[in-house]
Every structure is written in structure tokens, then in C-alpha cells.
Records
---
Amino acid sequence: MSKINTFIKVFLNKPSEIPKLVVVNLAKVGVLNWMSDASYLKLYYFIIIGKRLNLNNPITFNEKLQWLKLHNRNPDYTMKVDKYAVRKYIEDTIGIRYLIPLLGVWEKFDDIDFECLPNQFVLKCTHDSGSFYICKDKNNIDRNMLKKKYNNNMKSNLFWHGREWPYKDAVPRIICEEFLEEEICDYKFYCFNGIAKFFYIAKGDNTKGTLKMNFYDMNWNRCPFYRNDHKPLDYDPIRPKNFEEMIDIVNKLCGGYSFVRVDLFNVAGKIYFGELTFSPGSGFTPFSPPEYEQNIGSWINLPNC
């Protein structure tokens, strides 16, 4: 019923959005899985971005992300997007002290022994994006709701939504990490050919529509571009004392890629690894003003392009 209500609301207020709504929902239920990756990305890009996707001569940032999704299929990427498997790589590369303490890993929800978990913790699926659950009081958990949520998540394959190849063979698991604190700073560094060019600071909860972000260059100057899907922060955060340490970590993790985003948390003066992302927003979240899509895209050097 909620999907029908959403459709009716869009139809009445923004009828031009109907094709987008139809294609997005068809993709979610797998009706478009038969399409080749290139054909699907061209369709989805046109529906979401409103422009034709140029894969023969990609120029903009998001066009080049789409090209990389099709042509840059390093087998190591599957391990590096896996929230459990990547931990060994991070431990070997920058050290275990930068990993959020792990409380457990399971292949299905029913294996979780909540009695053995602390009162506060964070659950995540290892094979997708955004399927986290922050528990602040174990006594208030709706187990039935949580089981339904994670049983559905464990059946999903993020590859089919945006044809991000690293997720196609990712092993579905659930991990539990230590709860850090409610208010944390999330730093996401955009790295091009082994060099971090800019980052954004995010605060809030994306699932509740409260997420805000500001973009900065590596000298902590506000960037002249932004993303339309999130509001800016109401202030400029203070540069943390350990920012140079963060940059050192990013430099150790970003080498060898045409593009990668390195995500870090900074909590009470301590740095934690978040994740590696090869296609932010799956390449469907353009920058504004529009000219910066091309400017930022110029930093990605593609072979034979």
C-alpha cells in the first residue's frame, strides 16, 4: 500500500517523475536483470541523471565511474568492499588499531546470540551498503522487525541495482561492531590516481533524512561545489588535530586505483577505518554547479580514453 500511495503522490505532484519511479522499482525487484550491464547503465543513467551516458568518450565524473564499473573489474575489489573480509587487509596495511572492534560475525540472523552482546552495538551486512542497525539499548530491540530486515538484506545482491561488479560475488554475512558514540564525524576522501583531492564531512543519519555534508579541499578550504541530494552543514567543523594522520592513512589506502573513496571516522580524537568505495552513489549523484562534474572527471585518467 505504501508504494501505491507513493506512486499516487508523485503522479499528482510531479508527473514527470513517473518514468523514473517505474524504472527504479523495476530494477529493485529484478525485472531488468536480463539487460546487459552497458544497456542497463545507459537506461538507468538517463532516467536518474536526465542525460545520455557517453561510454565511448566519458568526460564527467559520473560518466567515468560508469566506465570503470564496466571495464575495471579487479578481483581484489570484491574483498575490499566486503566489510568483514577487508578487515585483514586493513590490519596488514595500516594496523589493527584503526579497526572498529569486532563483536561477532554470522551467516544468518538466527545465529546471533543477543544475550552475549553488550547493551549497545552496531549490526551491518558485509555485502551491501546502508544496511546497518544502531542499537543504543538492547532491551528495546524489536527482534521480529530486525529479523525481517536482515533476512531481506541477506537475500539482496547490490550488483543488480547499479551493476557495481565488486558486489556481485560478495558473501552475505552479518557483523557486529562496537558502538562508538552517537555523534561521530564521517570523513570521505575522494582519491584520483593515488592522490586525495578533496573530502566531505558528514553528520546526521541518512536513513532519517538528517544527513548533512560539506566538501573541503585538502587544505580545509570549502569547495565551490556540492551535491543536491544533501543539505550543507550549518557551520564549518574545526580541523581535527589528527588530520595529518588521517591523510597519511588515506595515502596508504588509495594507491593503485583510477578512483577510490576512502572513508574514515574520527571519534574523540581516534581514527577508525570505515570502508573503501569505488562508485559513490553508484555513479548517479552528480555535483553542482554542473561544470564541476567535468572538472572533477578530468582528474580520473582512464586507459585508452
---
Amino acid sequence: MKLQRLRALLFHALLLALVGLLGVIATRHPWEVDLSRDGRNTPHPATAKLLQQLDGPVTITAYAPEHPVLRAGIGDLVERLRRSGATIELGFVDPVREPEAARAAGVRRSGTLVVDYGGGSERVDTPSEAGIADALARLSRRGNPWIVVLTGHGERALTGTAPGDLGQFGQLLEQRGYRLLPLALVDTPQLPDNAALVILAAPQTDPTPTELERLERWLDEGGPLLWLTEGEVRPALLAARLGLQPLPGTVVDAAAAEQNLDTPGVAVSARHPAHPVTQALDGPVLLPGALAWQLRESSGWQATPLLHSSPRSWNETGELTGALRRTAEAGERRGPLPLGVALTRTAPAGEQRLAVLGDADLFSTAALGLGVNRSFGLALVHWLTGERRLLGVPPRQARDLRLDWSAKAAALAVALLLLALPAVLLGAGLWVRWRRRRG
């Protein structure tokens, strides 16, 4: 008996020693596993790439009270970013005890981060990887490039709030350090030389010959252009000059059903070519009501399709109602069809870049959150403005913001929650009452 007790005590002693040893090892050599969807608790590869490209230290000052949970969360966030190889110094300031320091930094809410890098400073109101990455993306850029947004012919507004406007896309560009300048060609003899990009967002009327001449002068001088089109392509002369001919009708795509969309009038571009704009995309770009292009020979321009519809698509020339079938006699071509084209040529100042998309709705407030439209739009602007360092840094967004149910699934949920469950509870109550009366 004594020998058995001795063995039991020895076993428990060794077990406790092993547990203690494992605790010491875990403290000195921590090991983490991210089991969240899409690895949200580890730095995004694009964020890690941006941090590795920084050529100096980063200082983050957190204006947070001495609350252990809040400060620990900020510390864990910064520690995850340090693992990418960046030198990040973290300091805390209690805005309650040091209100003057918080006021001088422009801090108005607890938990605000002030990111300093390269002689510049940015505030991040909510501690997050996306906020810090956006701040560093702005600070790593030298200056704040101007983007000229042409107006005067019913173009989509990059500052509008309507579902069809491009207001959220404009805010996204401003968050990345761009400055938007609405400009009507009729009011200016020429476009500003210091503009990094000109955006022509689906004009509803044709420009005058004078306005078109000013836009073509910008192109002749090597300026970049982002041209969003829809419906009738305007100006048609510009498309012909670039070697682009729009196909008739609207692209319909059977692959839209796989994206839980209830209309075939949304083109799905899921297979991306090897191009700097699309290299970091990890999902489909969705284009509502898009038109397709036919590429023709154009002197001096090299055209590269960026977006294609699926092989189960075609350009429907009729109404998008009822059962749709492709009619080859009406000029309807089987997919994949080019939906967006990148054009380059050699200019005196270097490579000139243009992008023409057969849709403006993909950047609208109603569709910007679909697929990877946000990431594609931001990467496209970075490429057009020559921001090579930022091409692989897409905005972080949750993939489960929407709950897409089919009509059958929604009807089943309604039947279970509003009919079956109340009926079961009512039946159980009646049965209990009957049993008590019998007893």
C-alpha cells in the first residue's frame, strides 16, 4: 500500500512539474493559432507587405485611460503588427489626467490612436488594423495627389449620397489620401498639370467639341484617365480613338445565381488576369448592368482586359424579363466578354495608363460592398496614379455583413419561427393543462 501511495504521489508530482514546465514555455515562447474566418485576428498579407515596405520607425500614441482591458487590446493589436517586421513604438497617454496633451493632438474620444511616420501624423479614431493600415498608407505617400472629377454632363457624383452615386467610393479615396476636385471642362481652358488622375464617370450627354478637345489634350500630354461608362457610351469618339467598340445590349450572366443574386443582369468577373490591379483580389468583381467591349487595333495603345464575364454570359439585346436565351442573329456573343480594359502606351514622361470600364454601378453606394468591388476600385486608382507600393493593400471588410437567403429558405424560416414554433408551444401548454386536470 505504501509503495502504491508513493507511486501515486510521484505521478502527481511529475504531472504538476510537467504542467508548470509547459506554462513557463508558453510564457516565454507564445504560440498562437488564428481560427477565425479569413484570419481576421492576424495581419492581412497586404498589411504585412505595407509594413515591410516602410523605411523608418512608426510611433503610435494611444490616448486611452488606465483601463486594463482597453490598453491590453491596443497592445495586442500593435504586437500583431510588429510580427511583420516593422519597428513600432507604442505609448499611452491618459486623456483624463493629461487633457492638454489630448486637446493639442486633436483627440476627442477615448481610444484614439495618433500614428506618426516620416514626419507626418494621422489620427485613427477606432483602434483597428484597417485604421492603422489606412493611416500608414496615407503617410507613406509623399503629398496628397489631386483627382479631377469631371462634371457638367450628368456624371455620377463622387460626393453624392444617393444609392446610384459614387459617394462611398469617393470617401474611400479620400481616406487613402487623395483629394477630389470636381471640375467642368467648360469652365477651364485646360486640366491642371498637377492632377494625378482624371475620372470621367458615366456622362449622360456628349461633351461639346471644345470640351472633348481639352480632354484629348490631357491624353496627348500623357495624363491618366479612369473612364466609367454605361448605356450609351459617351463620348463615342474617344472610345473609337482608344480602339474600343461597345457591344450592343447588357451583359447577363448565369453565374450571378452562384453569388445569391436574384437577377441575371449582374456580370460576374471571377477569373482575374495576371495584372498589378488584380493580383491581390481574392473574390469576384460584380458589375450590375454592364456592357461589354470589342477590342480593335489602336495605334500606340496596348490593351489588356482586366475584367471578364463568365463563360455562361452573353450581351442580351432584348428586355431582361422572362426566360432569356442568347440569339446569335441579334449580335449576342457568348462569354467570356471583356468588361474592363487597361490601356498603356509610352509617353514622354513614362508609361501612360488608362482604364475603361463598361459599368459605373460597381462603384456606386449600392454595389460597392458586393464581392471585392472596393478592393478592385482602390487597386485600380493606385495603379493609374502610379502608387505601386499600395497596390497590394486592399481595404479590410467583413464577408458576412449580408445574410443572403433564397426564397425557399426565407419561407421555411418564417414557417418555423412564426407558425410551427408557436404551434408547438401552444400544444405543449394545452397538453400540460390537460394532464393537470386529469390528475
---
Amino acid sequence: MSERRARLVRRHLLTPARRATDALEVARSLTALHSTDPVTVFVSLQARTDGVLPDDIERTLYDERTLVRVLCMRRTLFVVPRELVPAVFAACTDTIAARERRRLEQMVVDSGISTRPGAWLRRAEAAALAALDARGEAYTRELVSDVPQLARKLRVGAGTRFETTQSAGARVLPQLAMERRIVRGRPRAWKSGQYRWVPVERWLEDGIPALDADVARGQLLQAWLAAFGPATETDLRWWTGWTARDARAALASLPLATVDLDGTTGFLPADDLEPVEAPEPWAALLPTLDPTTMGWKERDWYLGPHGRMLFDSAGNAGPTVWWDGRVVGGWAQRADGEIVHRLLEDVGSEAERAIGAEAERLQAWVGDVRFKPGFLPPFQRELSR
């Protein structure tokens, strides 16, 4: 267990000595950055860098475009190093896109829009792409205003107690992104989840090349194990969203070593068996859905008994306080901007001072920006009041 924690610290750049000087290095070290909550990307990077400000991160995302925001593993939004984008599409997004298109066609039928949903969607998509090409880039509401088909109302969750309505544009445009035709560009602000849509060729001059799915799964697995190994098949299937068949085929395709993880088989690259020296004790404040907190399905070795307090009922992690490779508390930002935290166990005075220093570092970095995470379990919600 101590060896796994030492690997976590070093691979995930979570000590002052290991911090990076640019956003791309961090993303590569973690394989991908969670982006369901837009603030997560920035605070995840803050925790692992020195001297990297929001403007620097935005430049990497939207000017250099060496990081790209895509929907991929588990139908979740991530920020991915550009060189890994083709692999995550072939390994994950293509399968999700096919499934989501079938769901979208059924919504068109359920909503009484057309009994020929495939044909109707092709016309709506062609009109949306033409409107986007004319504008160069646009928010969803702008394209909904331009294209009457996108303004049609879809019944989502028809026949269930969760039924609601959405504009067709809110579903058609993400579908086009899953199918490599458009991408999410610059948002209104770094903490905003309202992104401009951009034709893929205008954002990435070579588009998103297609790869063989089996080859792509091997590439993604290799990158993930370098960051998160040793890990179990259960961890892998959860993180990727793969079937058991695809996960086992990917594991069999690489030269891997196995280790015992408290009675369960863990996998890691065959050339990664050297022991990792434990670093000095360290503190970190990681945000909602941070990739480290969310990196494994089986989390007891770093989460201990605190899961019910710090995760919501759907399994989404809120902001966490870490000490020496373990989660020991939670934190939040109050309405006046103050960063506050609370520990769930006695960690000693040295740890408390280090955690307090990290809270001050985050406070200074955030400045006068206020944010409300999309996922805030009750414990952290209470802190924020």
C-alpha cells in the first residue's frame, strides 16, 4: 500500500519537488484531466504546477491547442493531450457515438418530430454545419437561433419520472463532436462550461485521424497504466467504460507484469517494477472530480473510510484534502471567496501546517474568482456556507 501511494505522489506530480511548469506536462502525467466541471481542469493544474496561471492554461488549450477537450471515457468530458486524441476516440468515443446516435434517433421519434429520424437528423446536422461554417465558431444558442431544426424540442427520458425537454441543438451538436466533425473551443470564461463550437479542421488542421480500435485501446491502456498502475481489471473497466472483453483483450495485448493487491491481481507495465522511494510527506487540495481522486474504482487504499463523506451518491468526488498519499478531509470556497477546509482525522500539527499552506497557495491563485462546482457532496456543501 505504501508503494502504491509513493507511485501516486510521484506520477501525479503532487509534491513541491515534482511540480510541473506547464499544463501539458501535467495532462500527460495523468493521461487526461476531468472536464465535466470546467473549474476542475484549472484547479487540478494549480495543485501540480508552480508559476502557471489561468491565462497560461487557456493559451495551452485555445491558442497552442496541445490540449483538446473531448467527450471520451465513460461518456465524460476530458481534456486530453493532442497526441492521444485519436486513441481516445477510437478506444472509447466511437463506441459511445454510435450508442448515442441510436438514443438521439429514438428521442426524435418519441418527440413526434419525425418517423424517419435518421433522415431528419442528417438534414439538421447538415444545416448546423453550414451555419457553423458561416460563423466560423458559435455557441449552441447562436446555432439554435440560426437553424430551425435545432430549436425543435426533444423529450429526454420519455416515459420516466425524469422526463424533461431540451432543444435538439443541445443533443445534435455534441453528437457532431463525438463524430469528429466539430470540437469545443474557447468558453465564455475559464470557469464556464459554455463552449464555442468550431469545425474540427479549423481547430485541428489534420482533423482527428481514425485508428484501429484494438490498437487504440492498447495505446490508451499503456498511457493509463504508466500513470495509475498498478491497477486492477475492475479499475480499468470503470475508468475507460470498456466491456470485460475489450479490457481483457487490451491487457493481453501488452507486455505487462502482475502484482498482488491485497488478494486482487494488479497490472503494470513490465518495465515498471522498480520500487519507488517514498517522498517527504506532502499536502494537496484537489478539486471536484480530480483525476487522482477519480482514477481508480477500488479506492480504499487512499480513501479509507471517508468515501461516504466526500463523494456524492452517484460516486462523484467533491474537493478533497490529501496528506501523504491519503485523503484526510474536504475543502470548499465560500461565497466571499475564502478557501476553507475540514479534516476528518487527526493528522498532526506538521500536516495541519502544510495543509494550511496549500489552502493559502490556492487562495492566492484563485484571487477574486468565485466558482461553484457542479458536484458538491453534502460535507463540502456545508463547508461552503
